[in-house]
Write a structure and sequence with these properties.
There is one protein chain. The protein has a domain at 1-41 and 379-472. It is an all-alpha fold and 472 residues long. It is globular. It contains 22 helices and no strands.
């Protein structure tokens, strides 16, 4: 039993995403504990439109191939609908009501759909407050207004950029919450967003002021392509991403043939950025498929990209080194970390990323005492980063200092509960409580109270985070 707990704990050892993706991905843990540590889950809610800052007209932003419509066969249309008749429940409220006090559970203070305006502004407010289940429930209301609510799947409906943005947001929320089965069912009608009614040209010109191209957000295409990852089918996701990459590269090459001018430069840069984003996702799929040869090939392509900045190259190489550590290739990891240093700009003293790399390298060599010291030094550069405390606690555990590890985790939680009460640290702390004593119920319930007070939603269930099945 203890061995199983140690395995469960060790998978969270280096729980930060590879550094290059830190500003794009969710640092607070992954959507599913079944996804390896090397995998990076993009947070579409924080970065729904990663290319919105590019100064390009709609004709370039929406550019995508409208499929040829054959008059000999019926036109296949997109006919989605909400698949669940009821709102998503709040598992934290239910757990508090069952394990602590029903009244305290009822008084849980989080925003509900009724507390915000019934529009996109209200939806943004719920997401900003991390009330993701409430946001899902609000999307159901808003899509019902657009005749795409429960029971409407299979019925013809007119689409718009607004309705597709709502669907994109809803599916991104469901993925973030680990509601993969619901997301799968509701995503099926969209397929690859290439049906004729996904394009402006399908509708009367007066409806969209003669706009042409795809109405769907590009991030929606990526989300649908990546969805099979969460359903345990990374090969399917890889195929879909390759299809999106092929079209994206074709469009970028189209602009390369234009005469040199500012408009050409902006358009080419815009589609190059999208191409790079797809390559990041393909790296993720390759990691899940353990195709490390393809991983090396793709990251080298990204590092050698002349458009990439020195900082981006540095972070990419750091990520590459961490991937090599996951493969057990310590020598290869050291080479990548050393290569990353050559691109570092400014100070010659180690930065936060470099210290984390050193710490992980020491971990791979089973030198937990040295790793702890390096991670501790990293806290002097960023004392709010929960990942560092998470790794320090595990170093203490594997050094035989269980009580000190628990004390460190608890200190991190009480100093910064909103950030530290993330899925990874809670799994580790709950596991340590079980290793410490068979009577871990009281401490887990105390942790649940903190979750109730400081967190609106978690990405994975409480039974995973706090192992509450052992509490009941």
């Amino acid at each position: 039993m203890a061995h199983e707990k140690e395995l469960s704990l060790s998978k969270y050892f280096a729980n930060d995403p590879p550094s290059f993706f830190d500003h794009l991905a969710n640092k607070e843990g992954k959507a599913s504990t079944d996804i390896p540590d090397t995998y990076v889950s993009y947070d579409y809610l924080q970065n729904p439109s990663f290319d919105t800052k590019c100064n390009v007209p709609d004709s370039i932003r929406d550019l995508w191939d409208l499929p040829t419509i054959s008059t000999a066969t019926p036109i296949a249309l997109t006919m989605p609908g909400i698949s669940v008749a009821t709102d998503l429940n709040d598992p934290v409220q239910e757990a508090v009501g069952f394990l602590i006090d029903p009244i305290e559970g009822q008084h849980r203070k989080i925003l509900s759909p009724d507390d915000v305006t019934q529009d996109e502004r209200g939806l943004r407010e719920l997401i900003e407050h991390e009330c993701f289940r409430s946001a899902v429930n609000l999307t159901a209301r808003l899509l019902t207004i657009k005749q795409q609510g429960f029971g409407r799947a299979g019925f013809s409906v007119k689409h718009s950029p607004n309705s597709l943005q709502l669907w994109f947001t809803r599916l991104a929320l469901l993925v973030k919450l680990g509601q993969y089965d619901i997301a799968r069912v509701e995503a099926e009608p969209f397929e690859s967003l290439n049906k004729p009614d996904m394009f402006y040209e399908f509708y009367h010109p007066d409806m969209h002021a003669d706009r042409k191209g795809s109405m769907a957000p590009f991030s929606f295409r990526l989300l649908l392509a990546e969805l099979p990852i969460y359903l345990g089918a990374p090969k399917n996701a890889l195929d879909k991403l390759m299809e999106v990459l092929a079209v994206t590269s074709q469009i970028r090459n189209y602009f390369e043939r234009f005469p040199v001018n500012p408009a050409k430069s902006n358009a080419e840069k815009f589609w190059h950025l999208r191409e790079t984003r797809i390559l990041h996702s393909i790296v993720n799929c390759s990691l899940l498929l353990k195709d490390f040869s393809l991983v090396d090939q793709l990251i080298r392509r990204l590092v050698d990209d002349p458009v990439a900045s020195a900082d981006e190259k540095c972070l990419l190489l750091s990520s590459w080194g961490r991937i090599r550590l996951q493969c057990g290739d310590i020598y290869g990891a050291e080479k990548k970390f050393s290569e990353a240093k050559r691109f570092k700009e400014g100070s010659t003293s180690p930065d936060f990323r470099e210290l984390i790399d050193r710490g992980l390298l020491a971990v791979a060599q089973n030198d937990f005492q040295s790793a702890y010291g390096v991670f501790q030094k990293a806290t002097t550069l960023d004392n709010s980063n929960t990942m560092v405390y998470n790794n320090m606690g595990v170093c203490l555990l594997y050094s035989g200092k269980l009580k000190e590890a628990i004390k460190l985790f608890e200190g991190a939680v009480h100093r910064n509960p909103r950030s530290a009460l993330n899925e990874s640290l809670m799994v580790n702390l709950a596991t340590l409580y079980e290793l410490e004593s068979n009577n871990s119920k009281e401490k887990k319930v105390a942790l649940l109270k903190l979750v109730n007070k400081h967190r609106a939603d978690l990405s994975v269930g409480l039974d995973v985070c706090l192992k509450l099945q052992t509490v009941v």
